């Protein structure tokens, strides 16, 4: 049985200007120890997908439909108290921006230790403290003892990122959701952190959902990839299939954007146009206005097709 | 840290010096008290003699210099009216004023902060709307109006509360006797309604902003209980900037007592200063303004230093 199975998930925001379907009927699944990459442009609904797994959708948002089967139980049906026991314990999330993820007036030690203590009240403070030190060393934060007493503003961006990752690992979660864990960092540290995440997920045998707009990142780490566009998954399958043999025009575009070693083109390819606003989506396929293959058939949203274990939504792929 | 404190102290001293000059200058320009002090049928000779004894015939600078020398000895001159040291008279009235200001401030904090929190957690609930309606009223209604309406209702119509005076005093305050408390209720209410509404609204706005932050969501994602998130993670971030506001507002409260004390004939410094201005009793006015300024400056100093202890980001 899969560790996580998401079926037809719908997370909508009911705003004054209309209903924003940030997550609009997506499905995917994840085995134990597997790494899934979710790729897509800004606003595609990646973060909201992650927050939905934790039941952390702020008003005016709401999970309106679908199932999130985790360990055989549907998280959508769980009460706030039940979810609180799962959050940070069995499912942990690393937020997109480490600069704003830590409380500025509470020291790092407290912010780390509470993650252990609220889930395991029987653990002594001393043991919790030692566990935090161990994890901080594991994620490569120097002078862990001193850092426990520090406040966020005394840490560099890279250090904060490591603290936030450490925080997510403290209770050895079965599922880790990492939302752009490296965007805030410079390139050398990015590579280190990504390598670290991969190592940690295999050490702890945790499953990982890696959210990013950078398909290069997922191409290194993931087993599976879901490509999201305007709240929907447009292509979903094994990493090798998606990276080396993309079928959906949008995925093709994303791959073509990547710089290649044997390429002497002056400028990188860019997909023309921008993702439409979720409040004024085109009729039919949402990618229609930017797609070079689009024709009259695309005025109807393409049906789901399953081709060699890959799921794809496009009229032109047969 | 010591350097920071010394620096702040120096600043405070400079501010006090400047204030002393301004206060003295204004009183110098305000007019000659001698005419008011002597009976109407006094001779010109008596007026001149009186001026000389009070030192009022000298030039401004000479008077100011003499004033500074005296201040440095803790002597702010004798009241023209009462003949006693001006500072003693102000200090004698101070407990009544401070009692009003301190009790009002405590009341505003104890009620304002919890109501602010409640109305920030569920901003659209009926309870929040009621709280916000009353806080808007509290902010908009002038102090003297509140005072007079209270007197009308509780003294004139219902006759349950005394409309003037301080009542029975025990240990410098009326808060320890039943009669004293009866006298306190209306002046304290009058004085605290605005402060309470202000603190409530600032708490609410602060909490609502903090509760939207990523670190609050991350705390929830870690499985921290909602109560702990609201009353520890979020409240700590909200209260730190509030310390400054409370400090400044306390100074304002002391100043506002002038109106309240006048309405309720409260025998504090506010009433004293109004009387003294009318009589052109320069030493009392100067002593009062200097003492009040000193309280302002001292509060600012304390708030600045306190801030460096509670906000980790400004630790020096
Ligand atoms: N609180 C909210 N109210 C209204 N709409 C929201 C809210 N939060 C998110 N959305 C909408 O949901 C959509 C998806 O947002 P999401 O944060 O998941 O995007 P993303 O794919 O993570 O983008 P990025 O790469 O910029 O992080 C966006 O179009 C956004 O406008
Ligand atoms: S359905 Fe049509 S518009 Fe959409 S991606 Fe396929 S070809 Fe392009
Ligand atoms: Mg995002």
Summarize the structure.
The complex is a heterodimer of chains A (about 325) and B (about 325). Chain A is of the alpha/beta class and about 325 residues long.
Features of this protein?
heterodimer, A: 318 residues, alpha/beta, eight-stranded mixed beta sheet, four-stranded antiparallel beta sheet, 12 strands, 31% helix, B: 316 residues, mainly alpha, 12 helices, 77% helix, globular, binds adenosine-5'-triphosphate, binds iron/sulfur cluster, binds magnesium ion
Description:
The complex is a heterodimer of chains A (318) and B (316). Chain A is α/β, with parallel strands linked by helices and 318 residues long. Chain A contains eleven helices and twelve strands. Chain A has helices spanning 46-54, 80-86, 98-101, 108-117, 125-138, 144-148, 157-169, 187-203, 215-221, 239-244, 249-256; strands spanning 4-15, 18-30, 35-39, 61-70, 73-74, 91-94, 175-179, 207-212, 224-229, 232-238, 305-307, 310-312. Chain B is an all-alpha fold. Chain B is globular, with a radius of gyration of 24 Å. At the A-B interface, helix 2 of A face helix 9 and helix 10 of B. Bound molecules: adenosine-5'-triphosphate (ATP), iron/sulfur cluster and magnesium ion (MG). Magnesium ion (MG) binds at residues 46-47, 96, 179 of chain A.
